[in-house]
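chain below, 721 aa
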Amino acid sequence: MPDLLLELRSEEIPARMQRKAAGDLKALVTGGLVAAGLTYEAAREYWTPRRLTLDIRGVDARSKDLREERKGPRTDAPAKAVEGFLRGAGLTSVAEAEVRSDPKKGDFYVAVIETPGRPAEDIVAALMPEIIRDFPWPKSMRWGKASREPGSLRWVRPLQSILCTFGPETSEPVVVEFEVEGIRSGNLTYGHRFHAPEPIRVRRFDDYVTALERARVVLDADRRKEIIRHDAENLAFARGLEVVPDEGLLEEVSGLVEWPVALAGTFESDFLAIPPEVVQLTIRTNQKCFVTRPQGSAGGKLSDIFILVANIDAVDGGAEIARGNGKVVRARLSDALYFWQTDQGDLPDLDGLRAAADRLGLDLARPLDQRMAKLDALGVTFHAKLGTQGQRVERIAALADTLAASLWPKGTTLDGAPVSKAELQVLVRRAALLAKADLTTEAVGEFPELQGVMGRYYAALQGEHPSVQTAIAEHYKPLGPTDTVPTDPVALCVALADKLDTLVGFWAIDEKPTGSKDPYALRRAALGVIRILVDNGLRLGLGALVPAGDLVAFFHDRLKVQLRDAGARHDLVDAVLAPSDGDDLLDITRRIEALGAFLATEDGANLLAGYRRAANILAAEEKKGTHVAPQVDLALLVEPEEKALAGAIDRAELELDEALATETYAHAMAALAQLRLPVDAFFERILVNAEDEAVRANRLALLQRIRALTLRVADFARITG
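prediction:
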């Protein structure tokens, strides 16, 4: 079967757009082929900075002939109805329609529409101009003289050539001919703009890839990534170094070059006095280069060697390219060194900060305290309805203090030393007051992604407690599902307070997430609270801290997402949450875990079956209005099996009371497991719907006790497994 090769070549496509654009092109073209009646065996997309390519294998050579019968109105229908039918079917008169008869409905018109199949080349030729003109670039441009004309072609960068061939492996492919804005499709492509700018004639995908490789273009982005990774690691290894991993930068750089050439550059070792995160971000952001460190080094120590990736094999082996990059790197690191040193000095306007410092209890002899006082004095708005950043910091500090008092257990230690509740509260308040201070530093102004990280460095320089340093660095965590959560008692209190203040505040002003819109990242904040509490095994009643009841419900919804992502069965999550308005997320999580473990046993599976039988009987009788006794009358228990079940329920209730009081959910499930055999025996030998109305009502009361007992653990009716 024939294969289709398509290449759209342009000036440089921004790296961040390439992967998605190639995927969009694949979806649009294959979708168009299928809609036109063609099938294909496989399709794969490729991209470089200057081209999007599709390799579609096993395409039908021709679409199938189609015959459609479209039923119309009766032959004696009003003229307008007949005219509408003819127009919709593409017929000019009733003479072109067939007349058929129905014994009940009489004679009616039928349009037989026959659509002959089309060659695949014609389908592609008609499809591609529309796809190119309407391509979903997030940003696009017009160019040249045609740009003055309304409706002229827009593309991410000027489109330069279109390659489109079609044909089987056993014969010469043909060019699929079409034109877009004066650019005609053909069988020519072009290699590297410097190494091989001459046209290359292409037949099909295999020789296309080979020809590009000879012309210094690596088509496969993943292969370019591996070349960069391998060559960079080799360059570093030869110097006794290793590359600091950076998958995001690797992805970006692979989209900047068609022929990757790794080179080593240097800068003065004096710049290594700057925090390694600042060095890495400076070099990464400004020059898209990788930093290195001594092999096996710990503590973030870097080396003065960086790895850059050129897009050319230079005649001097890349010496001039490396020198030029080194010159720019040194200039940018000089700026970073200035920021780092400036942030350690005193601010020039300390007298104007004294009121803020006194109100917050800050020490203006310390640079980081000065920055916090400045943040407060500037009155920087956090949100128009939620006040300034300074006011928010005060709220976070107060809430963190409350959390420290609530979460402090006897025996809490910091750095291996016992800490009292009062001592913990002092440290937590100090950390909360300084957590946002680095927002006014020069370093964070240049690199906002270093919020917290820089605060930790400055806190260390002014001798803050190690737990305060950790809290400043980690109070934004976790930033995503794969991010770590704070474990230091001070850090987790400040991190919880930061997120809870955000949630409570935005709930109070009715700025809640809606659908896919969550501009203030409130879902992420709620998941962060959940992960901090659950991962650290912390018990916290959220109801006392988040007064809005619907905010507790929001936590329940986020907990469902978290547990399902972690592999928990959705029905078990619903079963535990349904009868509960609990605000202790750790408690809810443990209940779900215990329920899942119980139902995985034979006792659990059989008790679930018994529960369902009891619940179904009760539901049916309640629907009919059958009387159910308000409580079980022991005097009406006649048969041994019903007596045994009543006794088992009594024992299970006592054990369940104790287990739930101590929150030992494995024991709670064990208490329920005792019902398994008595329930089985009851249903095997006892007729619930006895003729005696009092006996029947009493036996239904037994079943009601089973339902009520299980509901104390979970709503078994929601369990589907």
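The domain at 371-520 is CATH 1.10.3210 (Hypothetical protein af1432). The chain has 25 helices and 20 strands.
thats it, cya
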